[in-house]
Amino acid sequence: MRVRPEDCRAIGLFESIAGEILAERDLLMNAIELRHLNAGEALFSQDEAHPFIYVVRQGLLKLTYLNAHGDEWTKSLVAEGQFFASLSALRSGQASFSVCAIEACVLERMPFRVVEQLADRDLAWSRMVRTALMIFAERKERRERQFLTMSAETRYRLLLDEEPHLAARVPQKDLASYLGITPVGLSRIARRVRAGVRET
């Protein structure tokens, strides 16, 4: 399903990232498709060719890795107003992670090749892509720092402080996976936090 110009979220988001009006918006607009997902439905799978960028119009998704034993670990949670893509899949590669809807979702999907074409011939689009990549890198760096320098309880408290609305929407098993602990471990930490007990 095509996106009506007045309803498009991607253009507004990209112009916000670029800090200016972007040229040839119609070229991207004509390439954007709406995707609807039910809660629990997969968008794409790890190791699948998937050279697309997504903007979340509505809903909540989890981006996950599967290890050799079939265990799932959540790398990211993505909600309304955010964008995502598997960078490894954008240049004829394979996705390094899977994506599944936690809630019913409405997404805007666009081929990376169209964004790349625009960036190749327009400086503003090029700056937007560069800034978007910096946003990706900053997210990754922040996540790595949390895992390498913070305890699971500190990560949980930080999530409650910074994104309480997100923590309230995510099922406990997915939240535990996102924090890198078991559901039992999360339940224990959550009880301590509710009781006002600080880790020593």
TrEMBL record:
InterPro entries: cNMP-bd_dom, cNMP-bd_dom_sf, RmlC-like_jellyroll. Residues 28-118 form the Cyclic nucleotide-binding domain. Signal peptide: none annotated. Pfam families: cNMP_binding. This is Crp/Fnr family transcriptional regulator. It comes from Peteryoungia ipomoeae.
